[in-house]
């Protein structure tokens, strides 16, 4: 892909902007594209009654064990497991308890629109001084998704179309790649669609492969316009940042994120696992599903771990 | 309700037992009742394309602030909110990060079948010494729900049928109450159904009311047979323990739990919020929905916070 | 005490300032007053060989259970307690494990000099934009105390001198009160001293009393000059904020903090428990001790839980 | 060293046992050896007034990043760093806040006597069923150290005596090595002493060296008798488990731990950093110090992070 510099991001961001499109107070961005008829149409795609969880296990094999990354892998600890009753508080039953400590972006997750911005302004023009504080996101928090994200999901199985197991580090998926993936799926993009972008990256990381995190394959920044033109509501991927990493020499590190989250108000999901779903889609030839993603209801949250479900 | 003693629980437990019904290795219990045709039928209930999140906010107003309860309220903290870049690691964008610390049973949640048992044996006869250890649940963990729980949900709005805002502490809902609630909803129970039991309790707690936690209204232990007979897959409630508390003088504290989780392998969900869904059901007269609950994918977890969604 | 407004704080702050006194790069403030001879002199106060821990138990009875306070009480959970060995990793021994989740200011603690400031500048003129970031305190972190704080401690048992069990909410301790407490102790202040200010407040809170947190008794802002004049190195107290709360109508909420931490670089400790030490001092008439406080070695920390020790 | 099997541990354990020595209710073990005169004598060793913190930084470079170890490295996060005041709760000052999540054995720490045992019984004969439960250690918790551990510390700088920078993996230190180290230090062991055992291991791990964790150099099990004979109160080391690892082929993995903690009631500390102290001792030829270790006051804790201080 051609490089894009900061000024290029600003110019393209203005062109693709959804600021004000759904009102000056809007905090939901492209979720507004998922109208009730889109929800109903998604439900109508269910035929066989099979479901697929799209989350990787939230455990210590995540990508954030390195010191200094500022993130850490999920921690799960049992706090009671034998129901011992030394203080006589229980009676006849025994029970177990546990807890989790989770960075909201450290396992399968979606980003709130308050997660990323530039030039001091978030999506829809909210200033970061008052929108994202120590008390949490006052604007564009994950609670804007608290009724769930329900729409048609379309699996774009890029490596399978190319006849490979997974995409190599640095592989760029541009607008033409998205068109080709839809063609291969026998589908046309529809407003409100959720793209489920399979690269094969993160499940391989979990199996111990060195997947070249810093050069993760993914979308080019040019896909932002394609996504805007096709009125896509969300993109979820099985890589680290949806977009290709390490490919924009001389410009911002993650230009697609900047355009997508801040200018377009696009929902992004990362660290997904599409392996089982992809097998199923390859087997029955149906690449659309009812997609249901329901983040935790975290006041002020700027992201959330979750386990999205694909229903076919 | 009549009291039931420990021996009574054992006898009734044997009668209602689902042990072995789905194989000696089964760890999913009544989720087996949700066959693919039940999933498809659930999707077919979607008409208007509206969605309702059923989780309360995971915040510090939960029920577990008292010292010594062994649980604690959800903790959410921002770990970055201004995107400051003192070390030059970022470039042109700014971002925010946060984390959550969650007891898996301290906000809206579902119980894994490894959460509760008696007489040293869990559901399907697994011995607690090897099934629930410091390393997590080796059997019946929450990962058995990792493909999501998708079925028909039926809102049983008990207080509204009775013409009250909420049920008083100690109010018992027995089998006849369940029948009456289905009648009022104009529906018949079907195998695989998820009961959404509204009492009005927990949302009132969150609004600051003293709801009498120790005498929370809910199901009587007699409902266990009703639920077994009607092949119900799950019961989710907006109270603390699904069942009525403080009502079984002289016997086990929570006999319904013991029968439901351990003998029947029934999925239970607690601390739900049905207020908005109930308003909608009262308005359109439709009390069934597509219910999608997707716990976090926690290896060895004995429960999970989540945000279930009702789709109508 | 007379009120002080923001402009008064600024003026007095300049007068009492220790900025530059120990070099432009100094991050230790009044700890510089604890010279090696002060350490040796502190050791020389040890006569009977008795020790007192000054920390309250780090448990759920702390002061921060209320939602929205932005702090939370200490959490301690066992993560292994029976040494079960389901996976064959252990051999002949059994062991237990646990973990703690601690706000660094939520139980007995000391403040790093990066904990509080005004007008955008920290102690010694460091600008908050670069000194205190999402990655931690780059200046004035708790690591500046990582060799331990060892000096003479002087117990100022204010209520006992007044013949009462504890000070009532709102009680102000001014410079004359400090003089009187030293007189009652039969001691003279020396450079490098650590004041151990007993009010009786926090231990009562832990015993269930309503101690009027918002009007906690303590030092007046006028004590800042007294402390500067006498070259005191640190003040540790058994209340919530060292200083009296709710007493500076119309001015800043905690003017002593602003002067002490930001302008003077004074070490403050809070939520201490002096009950046992005070009994001992009353019994033997010796109110000085060797004081050893050793915060956790937390890179970038802005405070630390700890268990200071008084040795007599 | 010769191997020791489980029966050998039991036999030697009975011989070295301190059970009942300080009463049937004792929970402090060898801390009883630190009598007031030992505390005073420790204070009398202070000459130059210099202090050394012995804790490594509690950060993400600890030894527990590997998935499945059941431990995790310390987590420190800022929760407020700019004092933003969007809700008007603050007035004129700005402040910062942070928190830590710490496994009690995952950085520099001491073990409570409830941390390890065998044959179902802890130190002094407490049964593990009632002594160590989900609610914490009911016996032998870390709170038994809450008045601090203050005694003479003796640095045993094993590698320096041998003319090397650090001990190689697998290096065994036996009773003769302890005698030689005392001789080299020009000191004789005294009752109540705290041994500060330098191997050079953990500081090297933190500098990125592969130190062969599974074969960490350290004490042989034969040192247990030496320690018993010399009435040592505690052993703290800069390796992973005080004792040599991987050296007892065919027998228990950590026989010294079993004898020391369970039979003798000996205080152990691990993951210390003696580098700066060792430089100082080499320079002035004085290898004794006043040692002050003060664990956090954690009710029911089975260990504690801390920052011990050596004062010379």
Instruction: Report strand order across the widest sheet of chain A.
Output: 1-17-15-9-11-13-14-5-16
Number of strands of chain A: 17
| CATH C-level of the largest domain in chain A | Alpha Beta
Domain module tally of chain A: 2
Q: Give the CA-CA distance, first to last residue of chain A.
A: 35 Å
Largest sheet of chain A: 9 strands, mixed
Give the largest interface pair and sizes: A-B, 93 and 93 residues
Structural shape of chain A: globular
Which stretches of chain A are low in confidence, meaning pLDDT under 50 for 5 or more residues running? none
Determine the CATH topology of the largest domain in chain A.
Answer: Glucose Oxidase, domain 1
| Helix/strand order of chain A, N-terminal first | HHEEEEEEHEEEHEHEHEHEHEHEEE
Helix content of chain A: 10-25%
User: Count of helices of chain A?
Assistant: 9
